[in-house]
Structures are given as C-alpha cells and as structure tokens.
Design goal:
Elements lengths: L20 E2 L3 E5 L3 E7 L8 E5 L3 E7 L4 E7 L10 E5 L2 E7 L11 E6 L2 E6 L1
Parallel strand pairs: 1-6
Antiparallel strand pairs: 2-3, 3-8, 4-5, 5-6, 7-8, 9-10
C-alpha cells in the first residue's frame, strides 16, 4: 500500500485551505476589586487580537489566515469594561477588569452593635 504524501509534499493546488477556529485555554481569577482573565493564544501577533467586553462578559477573537481563536467568557461579577487593562507577551493574554462599585453579587449581613447605652444598626 502506498503512503499518502505529507501536506508539504503535495502540489499547491492540492493543499487544503482549512483554518480551524480553536477555543483558547482560559483562567478566570476573581479578587476583591477585579477579575483577571488569562488566555493562551500561541502563534498570534498582538495586533490580531480583538477584545470586546461588557459588564458581565468578555469575548476574545483572533481571525488570521493561519489561526482562529474564539472564546466568550462569562464573568462572575459585574465589571467596568471602560477601565480594562490588557497585556500580551509570549502567547499569554492577560485582561484585568475592575469590578463595579456596589456589585450586586455582594452579600450583606445586618447586625446590632451596643456601645455603652447606644444601639446602632450596621450593614456588612
């Protein structure tokens, strides 16, 4: 049985022009005042990365002739997309999104505090 020639050995007209869209690996890190999204985008130039952020989602898109990445990340808290900061180095994209003040995901507890003869209500 003959072997199928490798793509490099095939004539240009026989090479498939297929570009696959890949979902990048993503980590979501939530701290007190911000959400950090870290995505692995190997083989991509910084200029080819497109980001779109809303209060509760981040979309990462790369569409070049050689590579395609797409990921929609649902954020665990509301953020301020206008204040986002990004960096990209060695195939690693980092997006820092500050959480909105007065986040709706916050849990409050009501308690009474007695100081001497004075009683006050507090929310924490």
């Amino acid at each position: 049985m003959g072997q199928t020639p490798q793509t490099e050995d095939r004539p240009d007209w026989f090479r498939p022009d297929v570009k696959e869209e890949i979902e990048p690996l993503v980590d979501i890190i939530s701290i007190d005042c911000a959400i950090k999204v870290v995505a692995l985008l190997p083989g991509v130039e910084k200029e080819d990365i497109r980001l779109r952020a809303t209060e509760d989602a981040l979309i990462i898109l790369v569409d070049t002739s050689k590579r395609g990445y797409y990921k929609e990340v649902k954020l665990p808290a509301k953020v301020d997309p206008e204040k986002a900061e990004t960096s990209y180095k060695n195939g690693v994209l980092e997006v820092n999104l500050p959480k909105k003040k007065g986040n709706a995901n916050r849990v409050f507890s009501k308690f009474k505090l007695f100081l001497g003869n004075t009683e006050r209500d507090y929310m924490v």
